[in-house]
Amino acid sequence: MSLRLTDVTLTYPDGQSRLTALDRVTFAVPAGALAAVVGPSGSGKSSLLAVAATLIAPDSGTVTVAGADTTGLGRAALTDLRRHTIGIVFQQSNLLPSLTAAEQLRVMAHLDGRGRAGARTRARTRALDLLDAVGLAGQAHRRPHQLSGGQRQRVTIARALMNDPTVLLVDEPTSALDNDRGAAVVDLLTRLTHERGTATVLVTHDRTHLGAVDRIVGVHDGRLREEMVTESQ
């Protein structure tokens, strides 16, 4: 499995006691599969995503990413793991207003330390290829204010794929989009997951566009409940 959480418990301080966000959760996603995690606000789905992204360490249990057990890793090692192995699409696009769509992607290669001339050329080529893959080949030189909400979300997805991650984690990608654009984004994520072989987790409260995903898992009071698995799984 490219992503596995095993017996994970996560709690937060709550006055004199602690609030349980994840309660002995076991959850695995193989390469090339998209799992949708659904549930209302406060159910634990965002905590699940944060733990899977190694942004929060659980109280107990293990998180394994691309075969690497993250338990006990220091801050630098976790940062390196995220940079090379995990792509994250946050709910807000956080695109830099002064950069073009292509530059938003290329800056990821610079953060990865690929600063030499040959690497810069490869980064430019990969950025254009990814923008083409998300349907924005003609928008590479546009800045965020020149793009629609759906187009900005596609740039964000392409940016998360720039360093060829094994695991792709996506937080509420349709929350700010209308029905048609939301459906298009979920379809895009499904296609890219299957084509590029990522283990993708899509966290959402909106069940409207999940017909083509590989799995749907509900979160209720920090516990998971399998709701749908396709025959291919």
Descriptive report:
With 233 residues, the chain is an alpha/beta fold. The chain has one domain: Rossmann fold (3-Layer(aba) Sandwich). It contains 6 helices and 10 strands; from the N terminus they run βββαββαβαααβαβββ. The strands form 2 sheets. It has a 6-stranded mixed beta sheet with strand order 6-7-8-3-9-10, with helices on both faces. Helix 4 (117-133) packs across helix 5 (149-160) and helix 5 (149-160) packs parallel to helix 6 (179-196). It is globular. The two termini are 12 Å apart. Pfam families: ABC_tran.
Topology:
Blueprint: E1 3-14, E2 17-29, E3 33-38, H1 45-52, E4 60-65, E5 68-69, H2 75-85, E6 86-89, H3 101-111, H4 117-133, H5 149-160, E7 167-171, H6 179-196, E8 199-204, E9 215-220, E10 223-229
Parallel strand pairs: 3-8, 3-9, 6-7, 7-8
Antiparallel strand pairs: 1-2, 1-4, 4-5, 9-10
Looking at this protein, list some descriptive labels.
6 helices, ATP-binding, ATP hydrolysis activity, 4-stranded antiparallel beta sheet, transport, 233 residues, Rossmann fold, 33% helix, alpha/beta
